[in-house]
Amino acid sequence: MTNGLLHVRLGEHPELNVVNGVLRVTPEGSTDSLFVVRTSTDAPLVLSTICTHLGCAVDLVQGQLVCPCHGSTYSLDGTVRRGPAVKPLARYAARLEPGDVLVIDLGKSA
Ligand code: FES
């Protein structure tokens, strides 16, 4: 990781070669991980794993993102499928660079 940018070489993660594939990564020096999700053939999405209800860490369970604390469930694009959470998971800015390297801007989430 350099300057708040995390580089993920997609070719090193076969789970991201299939639609609905999910990779969990933890940036160096951070305790919070991220989900990198291939929802289509476009560049993968990058989502926070922090539940928008009260901040527990969300897990990948049978193709959905599920919070173990109170059961909020999110689609792989981060939208809420079941509450109590009402806001989607935060999404990080990311872009594909030559060589199939996904560059994630850890300073930019919405
Ligand atoms: S903290 Fe995730 S559902 Fe409450």
Q: What's a quick, concise take on this entry?
A:
This protein has 110 residues and is mainly β.
Fill in the keyword field for this structure.
mainly beta, binds FE2/S2 (inorganic) cluster, three-stranded antiparallel β-sheet, 110 residues, four-stranded antiparallel β-sheet, single chain, Rieske Iron-sulfur Protein
Helix content: under 10%
Spatial arrangement of strands, main beta sheet = 5-6-7-8
Tertiary shape: globular
Query: What is the rounded distance between the termini?
Result: 20 Å
CATH homologous group name: Rieske [2Fe-2S] iron-sulphur domain
Under the CATH scheme, the architecture is: 3-layer Sandwich
CATH class: Mainly Beta
How many domains comprise the coordinates? 1
- The secondary-structure class comes to mainly beta
Describe the structure.
The chain is mostly beta strands. The protein has a single domain, classed as Rieske [2Fe-2S] iron-sulphur domain (Rieske Iron-sulfur Protein, 3-layer Sandwich), CATH 2.102.10.10. The protein has strands at 5-9, 21-25, 34-38, 45-48, 59-61, 64-66, 73-74, 80-82, 92-97, 101-109. A 4-stranded antiparallel sheet has the order 5-6-7-8, with no helix packed on it. The chain has a 3-stranded antiparallel sheet with strand order 1-10-9, with no helix packed on it. Strands 2-3-4 form a 3-stranded antiparallel sheet, with no helix packed on it. The radius of gyration is 13 Å and the shape is globular. The mean pLDDT is 91. The structure holds FE2/S2 (inorganic) cluster.
